[in-house]
Amino acid sequence: MNRDDRAADVSRERIAASDFQPLAESAGRPAGSRRGPLRAVAIAGTAIVVLLVLGFLFTARSVQIAVDSEAPASIDIDGLAVPLGERFMIRSGEYDLHISAPGYVDYAGTLTVSGEASQRLDVVLSPLPGRVTFAGIPEGASIEIDGEDAGRAPYQGQLLDAGDHSVSITAERYLPETRTIAVTGRDIQQTFEFSLQPAWADVSIDSKPSGATVFVDEEAVGSTPLTAEILRGERELRLQAAGYADLVRTLELSAGETTDLGILPLIPAAGLLSLESRPPGANVTVGGEYRGQTPLTVELSPGTEHRIQLSRPGYRRFSRSLALEAGEKSSLTANLEAQLGDVVFDIQPSEAQITLNGEAVGRGPQTLSLPAYEHRVEITLPGHKTERRRVTPREGLQQLVQVTLQTEEEARMARLQPEITTALGQTLKLFNPETAARSEFDMGSSRRDPGRRANEVLHPVRLERLFYLQTTEVTNAQFRQFQESHNSGQEKGNSLNREHQPAVQVSWQQAAAFCNWLSNREGLPPFYTERQGIITGFNPAATGYRLPTEAEWAWVSRVNGDSLQTFSWGDDFPPEDEVENIADASSAYVTGRVLNNYNDGHVVSAPVASFKPNHNGLYDIGGNVAEWMHNVYAIPAATGIVQTDPLGAESGDNYVLRGASWALGNLTELRLTYRDYGQAGRDDVGFRIARYAE
């Protein structure tokens, strides 16, 4: 029921007075005999209606429903609601509310009327989408609306929500355009005009002669003379005509500009000459100018004679003169004549394979006639080191290539230098136990040997690894490169601190740290492992500097051919000559114990290498200062089991000392089997360095 219908119903319920008219048929009756009851009923009915209206008016509330829309709205309340102007009189409660307006989405909701006398409900209607058409857009143009793909033109009568929208149009050969449109909505038809600007330039092109095909970025666009629409940016223009060289230009074009390139002269095309040679790889020159190597195609300016030359090492030069017409194509094959020289290969062993420039040519001694250019020669034989040579034969001159292959072991030994020099100038000598008369020997001494000590237990060892050993003991000058503040001290006014005296007062830890320092300086893998400056172990595979093992020291000092020496000078005691710096008559007031009737001329330590070397070329091996060994001190077990290259325990409290010193002079101490131990520095203890060769 709408507002107008309800108003009519209410109007019909109002009570109005009417004029009295007596009925004809009541004549003769007493006045009021029938009028009395009817009047009472009418009055009672009117009273009831009035009471109902008054009751409704007293209980109803005034509600204003404000609708936000451009078009008049129709309001429908499902219940008794009396319209009074822009308001409705309606009792408290909940009612279904329906609102509609042309161009808007119908509204459906609940009207809740509270107990307040006057109330207001605001309703905003949602407009329907508008119908949008874009005009002035090339067909197929890409359309984006609010950043999303909206398809391609044409775009007609499409629904679009009311409000502002960003529209981007991109079309081939046009500049992109972006603009904001305001869509009214409410199912209203709107047309938006776009005017895309061209993205090309008008370019006028002509050539001499005319009729040349014009290519833009390799796409043919017509023949000269021509005005072409060419897209903006960097473009490659190419003019092509039969018998003429291609004319290529790079154009930088802006949208909307007009460019006239004028008449472009075409140059007659060069002749093309395809060159081959047998063998290939010949150098090609045209008029003395290098052009490349065969096979090759060269351009020759037309109508002119050109001097073509081909040359290849070991072959005679090929020369030819020729001329080509404009655009003419021709070919030429040159058979090069070899210049040969004889090479005599004297190869041993005779079964060795000869490979020439990567191709096998035979085995053993032979003579080959080869082209007169440099050849790569490779001589191979399983189990032997490969030899590589380069030879350049000469015509009329015989050459000799003489090669004797080494076995892999021979080559391995040849790679190892017999002596090396450290960064500090120390000399280390190479020792190969496997080529010596004895690589296996007994360390220690027999119980029957005079002066033997209990820690000199006899036990067999074998050396296999090649090693280098310093020929002298480390000097003060060398050690101070590692520890600048080092001071070897003095003994009763006799200096131990001169540059070429052996460094003493050096602990085992300091000696091992010196080895690692020197390894790092020379880029060698350190032999000893360190933690916070303390040596904690070693890496047996490392080739960095280290201290000699006790077995190495015993081998280089004692093994002489098939015999084992007792002393560094031999087996006689006492020595007849001044052979080592030991406790002698001149040092009696310092040491107290001396070798009688022996005077080496030095009270304390002497400069290194002051006496003759032993049979292995090592100095001071049995005197001057005792030396730190790599091995942790232990008394060997007399098991009879051969130990190979023994390195001993990773760490320990004490380390082995070997060799006599300027402070030792009795029979026991001068023997090469004498063993001592310690870990702190002493004034008669130094060291020499060693390293594995591989």
Automatic annotation (TrEMBL):
Gene3D superfamilies: paralog of FGE (formylglycine-generating enzyme) (3.90.1580.10). Pfam families: FGE-sulfatase, PEGA. The keyword Membrane applies. Keywords: Membrane, Transmembrane, Transmembrane helix. PANTHER family: S-LAYER-LIKE PROTEIN. Residues 437-454 have a biased composition (Basic and acidic residues). The chain crosses the membrane at residues 38-58. It comes from the Bacteria. This is Formylglycine-generating enzyme required for sulfatase activity. Residues 440-691 form the Sulfatase-modifying factor enzyme-like domain. Residues 435-454 are annotated as: Disordered.
